[in-house]
Amino acid sequence: MAGSARTASIDTDRKDNIAVFNPATGEELWTVPVATREDVQRAVAECRQAQTQWAALSYTQRGKMLVRFRDHLIDCKDEIANTLSGETGKPKSEVFSAELFYTCDAIGFWAKQSARLLADCEQRLHLFKNKRAYSTYKPRGVIGMITPWNFPLILTIGEAIPALMAGNGVVIKPSEVTPLTAQLGCRLGEEAGLPPGLLSCVTGYGQTGSDLIDFVDMVSFTGSVETGRRIQIKCAEQLKPTTMELGGNDPAIVCADADLERAANGIVWGSMVNSGQVCLSIERAYVHEKIYDKFVEMVVDRLGKLKQGMPDDGADIGSMTFAPQLDKVERHVEEAKRKGARVLAGGKRPADRDGLWFTPTLLVDVTADMEVMREETFGPVIAIQKVKDDAEALRLANDSRYGLSASVWSRDKRGAMNIARRIEAGAVCVNDHMVHMLIPEIPMGGIKESGIGRRHGAEGITKYCVQQSIIIDRFGLRGEVFWYPGMKNAAGRFSRVLNLLFRSRKSVAQMLRSPKSGG
After folding, report:
1. Sign of dihedral through CA atoms 363, 367, 371, 374?
2. I need a surface site. Which of 23, 107, 425, 452 has the fewest CB within 10 A?
3. Which of 279, 429, 449, 465 is labelled catalytic?
4. Do the Cβ atoms of 143 and 220 come closer than 8 Å?
């Protein structure tokens, strides 16, 4: 599988290892070591040494090396697909169309755009015309990435690309559930010519991530709100910058004039892709009463046609990945049923399969007090609630502690845009969903408890930099008006300057008309 993957400098002969399982079958795939604090410190030190040399390269040189890395990823795409499908249970079609597609595109985008986005920028000064002012960007140093199990290539190697292009080194602490893909990606990067240690991986449980925070210069985290809060507290104690993409309970609003074919197809895909294990998944839909019955009928039809199966058998969706998450999905569905929700599709673990499976599920007759409508379910479940108008849909959509993503479905694009602006979410799509994850030009991230910072757009790379301001004197005079001894008896002069520069025109006119004007 991924046994030869480079894991920093950890002693792989130790007994304190983590077993990695195929969630679709329960088969044990491999074991990875639990990094000690010393292992983590050594990995960061190696990364810091490599980063110093890496930062000295031009953007063009870095880009060329990363493009070679991309070529190697494509050459090894089957190995990546086998490894990633094996530890997540997702179909290989999703590996190629999502994980590898995103990562390869990210390399091309950041390789081309980083120099422009991080170029020195001269600022035009409104007052101090005897100065020139520039803002510049410098790499932070070593970025620690603590990543989840649902997208083990996108959220490790893919997210590392802008950090690397900015001149940083990256040490990844992947989820202990899916560490093999990150290991493999780091190994392939080194094989493609990246400096040893520049992109590396330390494996372990939560303590490994906590240790990583102590040694890096910045932390990038993707995961749950609860873990993010703990990381944020620790980083705040050390005054270390963070960026966080946390949970979501993302709504879809289906207006009375929606194109029902597109809306049904899009919402089924947006709720079921990766078995619903996406922070951007549609988890709750608010559908206008005029089209509710027809829309529900169409969703039931489409869910019934989905093929759920093993990665190699042409399935639409695979298994779930993490056993406690499967338990949570089942708990949310059962709680909704106890409170009056009806299951029109799925709603259970299939009896004929071993492993972590849950059938594609539709809940109706749901209410706002149900966990499935208030918390992140993170599984192949969509809940649909009937609403009387767009205003009610908007109110219910915003009644959440989360604010990551949302979608509006309507033929009236101007009206949909107005609704989108009023949704309390960091990213909203009209007649689509989740596509902003594949568009690197525009920033994406959450509000409320869904996160801090953005991936993509200019902020997707500037967040990995320290912004520096440089002021240059233009004329080289012997002194400035603020310097000594020029400040002697300056009160009167500056009093007149204040009047000249900052009084409004109306105030100046009144002052000049007044015989008692002091000025």
Report:
1. positive
2. 452
3. 279
4. yes
pTM of the model: 0.94
Q: Give CA–CA dist 119/110, Å, rounded.
A: 13
What pLDDT sits at residue 11? 47
Q: What pLDDT does residue 15 have? A: 52
Domains of the chain: 34-246+458-467 (3.40.605.10), 250-439 (3.40.309.10), 479-519 (no CATH)
Whether 465 is catalytic: no
The question of whether 79 is a catalytic residue gets the answer: no
- Report whether the peptide linkage leading into residue 485 is cis, meaning its omega lies within 30 degrees of zero: yes
391 vs 394: CA distance, rounded Å: 5
**Tokens standing for residue 37:** 């604090």
The answer for residues whose C-beta is within 8 angstroms of residue 161's C-beta and 6 or more apart is: 66, 103, 106, 107, 110
Q: Which of 87, 245, 375, 376 is catalytic?
A: 245
pLDDT digits (tens, 9 = 90+) for 170-189: 999 999 999 999 999 999 99
Contacts of 459-463 with C-beta under 8 Å, sequence gap 24+, read 460/162, 461/110, 461/114, 461/117, 461/118, 461/162, 461/163, 461/165, 461/166, 462/117, 462/118, 462/137, 462/166, 463/241, 463/243
367: its two tokens: 């209410």
Tell me the C-alpha distance between 150 and 96, whole Å.
15
